[in-house]
Amino acid sequence: MSRAPSALRRAPSARRRVVTAAVALVAATSLAACAQSQRDAGGGAGGTFTFGAAGAPDLFDPFYASDGETFRVTRQMTEGLVGFKPGSSDVEPELAESWDHSPDGKTWTFKLRQGVKFHDGTDFNADAVCKNFQRMYNQTGAGQNNALSYYWIENFGGFADGKSPSLYQSCDAADPATAVVHLTRATSKFPDLLGLPSFSMQSPTAMDQYQANNVQAQGDSFVYPEYARSHPTGTGPFKFVSYDESNGTIKLARNDQYWGEKAKVSELIFRIIPDETARKQELESGAIDGYDYPNAADLKSLRDAGNTVQVRDPFNIMYLGITQKNNPALQDLRVRQALAYAIDRETLVKANLPEGASVATQFYPNTVDGYAPDVQQYPHDPARARQLLTEAGASNLTVNFYWPTEVTRPYMPDPQGIYNAIAEDLREAGITVNPISKPWNGGYIDDVDNARADIFLLGWTGDYNTPDNFIGTFFGTPTNRFYTAAAPWGEDLAAQLRAADSEPDEAKRNQMYQDLNRRLLAEYLPAVPLSHSPPAIVTSPRVQGLQTSPLTAEEFASVSVSEQ
Questions:
Q1: Of 311, 310, 307, 309, which Cα lies nearest the Cα of 285?
Q2: In the chain, count of helices (H) and strands (E)?
Q3: pTM as predicted
Q4: Is 464 helix (H, G, I), strand (E, B) or coil?
Q5: Residue 332 and residue 449 in one domain
Q6: Bond preceding residue 176 cis, omega within 30 of 0
Q7: Alpha-carbon span 223 to 497, nearest angstrom
């Protein structure tokens, strides 16, 4: 998932240094010897890759994170039992070499990669796997807050205290190379969900030493322990060095003891530059080597300057959310359908989204199982929208339309432009629009999550390739941001989603999801699907080897940077 990126002050631009001619000969000899030593020890080519990040991470413990900018950093340092094939959303082995499950789908046996060490030199083994699961399952106090354990709650449910049901039951270390995970029910998303950064394996020794679980609530925020701030310890190709909040610079170093192919660069730096125009200028100046989410209008000029612009396959959805809690008119299906007919999605996509974007007919891309080719369509039809509003007794409908500022999302590159286009369409259908804009991290997400908006712009980048990761996340509980609990079908929809996710037979499960997608569009319509958008990432001519991910989950170990 791609949630809220944090903001931090812009870092200084200078980073390159030149060796003076007076010491060139001595330095060249010394550096050559050092570089050879590094290559021999680490298998990498040396050098530094500097990436312009759109936001600052709150912490470096991925279990407590839910935002893409934190995961962008922690993904380089930590690994899961499973990972995703480069350039794909398909699961492949990572720290587990293979796995199998019982016929009922409740017991999963993982054969672990041997000889793997955490960054602190301790062993990765089955005992470490079970300690990681026990750590996640046994959260107490602030650790159970949805803002911290978001991905655990969304995917596993409750904790060891039994206050809410949990998908997780227990973990056994059958032998050092075999971990057995027991679930309370079958689920379509296992083991795929173990590829999420939040469920990465971290050193039990380091977590104990630096009190990883000692997170404290302080008003509306949290105070994180030393582990999350300064000592994240995984098994990945890079390890943590420092985070200088004063200039927004995060430094990682190559892990020369990495079990797999060593990183190509010896140093990985993230510079936090919230403004997209500033990121472009820093790339042009040579201060950074790449950045994410370039403006679609800049793609041609970036390419013309010799940069590499890669456009990922769209694995996301942008939607117009509809909250049924506060405005009684929105509880009427005809009113929600009127909103859908009012929006000119074809023009919206052509005018406001990058090349390759497409109109969405349902709440996930057609590459995900259970996609239904015959859902109800809502073509642009203002007259039909007006008719439905009249039939519902809502011809004078007024809506509070929330849209976010200070943000760029993979599915929503220009929030204001998208808002303007949709608001104009709604007005054309006779709907009065009351605009409410707030910073993404300054109230917008809080208001949306707490069902304060009538309608709102939001979306999702898939974490892994299952229907439950999309529509199960959106509508799987009645007290969601759409507040379907206010609808007579809210509980029924949630129950249908749980039943589909728990169906072990793949063919039957896919049919259940197809039926759900049909009903979501024809009978429920808790939101209006708008578009799928292909986000781009840009690197300088000096950069080679970047493999893009449809999950926007790039790993930088394959990147090399040449000197020019």
A1: 307
A2: 17, 23
A3: 0.82
A4: coil
A5: yes
A6: no
A7: 36
Specify the 3-state DSSP secondary structure of 17: coil
The total number of structural domains that make up the chain: 3
Instruction: Choose between 339 and 45: higher pLDDT.
Output: 339
Strands (E), 417-559: 432-439, 455-461, 527-532, 536-539, 543-544
| CATH number, domain with residue 182 | 3.90.76.10
Neighbours of 482 (CB within 10 A): 26
Report the alpha-carbon distance of residue 202 to residue 347 in Å, rounded: 47
For CA atoms 181, 460, 401, 386, give the dihedral sign.
negative
pLDDT tens-digit series, residues 493-502: 999 999 999 9
CA 272, 278, 279, 283 dihedral sign is negative
d(CA 319, CA 460): 9
Looking at residue 145, its amino acid is: N
Up-side HSE of residue 125: CA atoms within 13 Å toward CB? 11
Cβ 532 vs Cβ 316: under 8 Å: yes
Express each pLDDT in 123-147 by its tens digit: 999 999 999 999 999 999 999 998 8
Element (H, E) at 491: helix 490-502
Q: Which residue in this structure is represented by tokens 């312009």?
A: 52
282, 366: one domain: no
Provide the β-strand partners of residue 188.
Answer: none
Tell me, yes or no, whether 94 lies in a domain: yes
Backbone angles phi, psi at 503, to 5 degrees: -75, 115
Query: DSSP labels for 22-81?
Result: GGHHHHHHHHHHHHHHHHHHH-S---EEEEEESSB-S-S-GGG--SHHHHHHHTTT-B-S
